[in-house]
# Entry
Amino acid sequence: MKSILKVIVWLCVAIAGAGALAKVALHRGEPLNATWFVVAAVCSYMVAYRFYSAFIAARLLALDDSRATPAEIHDDGRDFVPTNKWVLFGHHFAAIAGPGPLVGPTLAAQFGYLPGTLWLIVGAAVAGCVQDFIILFCSIRRDGKTLGQMAREEVSARGGFIAQIAVLAIMVILLAVVALVVVNALKSSPWGTFTLAMTIPIALLLGVYLRFIRPGRVLEASLFGVVLVLFAVVAGQWVAASPPWARAFTFGGLSLAFVIIAYGFAAAVLPVWLLLAPRDYLSAFIKTGAIFSLAAGILFVRPHMMMPPLTRFIDGSGPVFAGKIFPFCFITIACGAISGFHSLISSGTSPKMILRESHARSIGYGAMLLESFVGVMAMVAACAMPPGVYFAINSPASIVGSTPDAAARTISGWGYHLDPQTMANLAHSVGEQTLLNRAGGAPSLAVGMAQIFSNTIGGDRLLSIWYHFAIMFEALFILTVLDAGTRVGRFMVQELGGRVWKPLARTGWMPGILLSSAVIVGLWGYFLYQGVVDPLGGINSLWPLFGIANQLLAAVALVVATTILLKMKRLRWIWVTLVPMAWLVAVTMTASYQKIFDASPDLGFLAKANVLAVQITAGLIPAAKIAETHRLIFNQRLDAAVTGVLALMILVLLVEALAQWYAILSGRREAVLHEAPYVPTKWAEGFTGTAHGDD
Amino acid sequence: MRTQGVAKFAKRSLRRFWRGLREWCGDAAYERYLRASGRQATEQRTLSAEEFYVEQINRRYSRPNRCC
# Structure
């Protein structure tokens, strides 16, 4: 009886999900209500989790709860800490949830809501969650080894080196692009800049409290810090209203870029307890709160999607970024569906804390489903505003013009009606001078979030507060990614540099710290500078580059996973990782090729460089701008070279892996797995890991 | 009787939530370390709360722990 009831319930969930997905995909005409998106996503996730992840857990990985995990074997209360399943789920989710699933879907909304939404749901279920889950499992079976170590042991030494370089490359481009998102959100915005600037002294205060006054009392310190940050959001309007203060906190793009570069350097060099860690605590609380508030707001307001399911820009002529749906929708969405970066969290950190092998299913697969849902919410927030407003915020001035009249004319000409007064009124109501040409996703997401929040609490009166709350939330956790990433990047530079010059590898040696920090900051700082001076706003070229790097890292992770599954003799189910891997290789190779060689200067880096070079030769560039144009040409060629190197790396790794697979399948090489030996668990079946039995 | 049961359940749930929240944010890390080091025979010297806090965050922020 019970099992029949279960079948009926799951049938209802599946039918509701399929029906809602069909509605989202096929609906035309009147704007669609966001509830359909929520039902489609949640029901699809439930079905995917219940059936597909269960299949992977049982058939493919054969998770074994009788086997002791690294957390049990090495339990030291430091790295290896047996952690309750739901607590670790929270840790893992807080670690993987970054700005990507918010910014990517917002940018991909230029194709309409349909392609991005479908890929967020389907991509997460069959690729992103699978990658996170299987890499987590592989790392658990190898005492918490990192992706690079597993690539070295299971694929080849060269494979490990490539993975290491790929991680560094993605880190550099990631840091540049997220810094650019912050610059575009804060330029000419004294309110936003003041609020974000205030988070630094607040973090310093918290740092001193947590180090000297009440060591390690993170909860009370963070709650106190959150109250101060919320006060700073409110106080920002007084700063914006006072001309001398507003002037002091008004920066152009380039000045902001240099401030952020200096901040990144300071965060990498200063003691962690002083700035980096307390900011991270603040960010984790605000991020979690804002994400759950957005979900509640969407369910409460149930906005209508003003954006059509498909826009005219599916042909590749989009103003936000160039390129057709295939491959650029997938490259742009990136983290919301599958993120290579997650494989770094799934290996190395979470596997050292997991209590039972079976928990890998909810932590690896489940946390990624939640991340995908964040992406769907960002898509809803972006598409709930009129398309004209969306394009006015996200398009660069060189395409739509820099005045409200010019932007309204251009965008209305595309078929998305926009009144010049609309943008002025919107900017005024959110407390900004202008919202035009703020490519990067953060401001349009903040407008979407503010509209949803203000419809829930406060109405139009609180729109400006909600907008700046949303900007602060995005900028705060982007800067957390920036400073944490810069510090990790510093260690990577030290490790790689230590192979050439030994003293550099000494992590406590101050000249080495300063030099390696300067190298990593210089690398991402240059790409940031390039983005800020780019006439197209930078996001246009840097976000696809970031997407390509991220998806390449995911391909690296799936190559490692496929190799391990092959060695485990799971040939029958190898398609589980092989198909997403092949898809990612196809997507990234096509995108790389088009970004480098496409004949259209809007899309191809080299074509753009050539057009600029021809313009100089033909005397079309004024003398004063020739040096600047030469720099732009260099930047386009640099982007082409970086894309080429990334693509080449995955090809080399793929060839290495294919040779290894062929040798194993043909019997010429023995399949040697580098798993840690089996140790039976000593924990009783019902042990939950909550404070070692005091539950 | 039923009200008592509900109150007991609510109290237990709140206690679990509070404990989970403290573990999630790192508030309970030192207590956990003390329990773990109590079981480790090889432990040289138990760190103070301040030493443990600094050592723990130095280690945590030297590897990827925040994603894109």
Residues 2-60 of chain B form one domain.
